[in-house]
Amino acid sequence: VDVAAPAASLTGKHILVTAGPTHEPIDPVRVIANRSSGKQGFAIAAAAAALGARVTLVAGPVALATPPGVARIDVETADQMLAAVTGALPADAAILVAAVADWKVEASPTKLKKSAGPPDLRFAPNPDILATLGHHPDRPRLLVGFAAETDDLLANAAAKRTAKNADWIVANDVSGDVMGGASNHLHLLTADGTEDLGAGSKEALARTLLARIAQDLS
Ligand code: CTP
Ligand code: CA
Question: Which residues form the DNA/pantothenate metabolism flavoprotein C-terminal domain (predicted)?
Answer without folding.
Answer: 10-215
